[in-house]
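Bit of a strange request maybe. I'm writing a small parser for structure token strings and I need a real example to test against, not something I typed by hand. Could someone generate the tokens for this chain?
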Amino acid sequence: MAQAIKLMRQAGVVDRTGGPFGAIVVKDGEIIGAAGNSVLRDNDPTGHAEMNAIRAACKKLGSPHVAGATLYSSCEPCPMCYSTAYWARVGKIFYGAEWKDYKDLFDDQAIDQDMKKPMAQRSIGLVELMRPEADAVWQEYRALPDKQRY
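Reply from user aminoacidic:
Good idea to test on real output. This should exercise your parser:
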């Protein structure tokens, strides 16, 4: 966790590449991914520390999964970062600051609350469009003998 907090300070206070967020991914006692926030540096809203650390870990392992790895995050992961950790099969997450500790600066808690609303009441409208055409591609994919499941 100390390493994640060091990256947090580096990204947010020293380099100012994004907000003060840092994360590391550890598997079998080895750091396989470490990063700070890069949203401002890269002009990329997905440049969260957890996302960057998980990307680095997956690249190092040559796999979209880090099964059994532990994520140390300087802050409670936002919904996007939690989902990425879930899809990457992270086994456990330790975090430092909670959403409420920085809710005046970042809207992680507001996003979480918005996603819990019925679709029609969410801040971003979700509208189904061309479902049969999209489903036809799913049918094609299902028929592939060598389809990849992840």
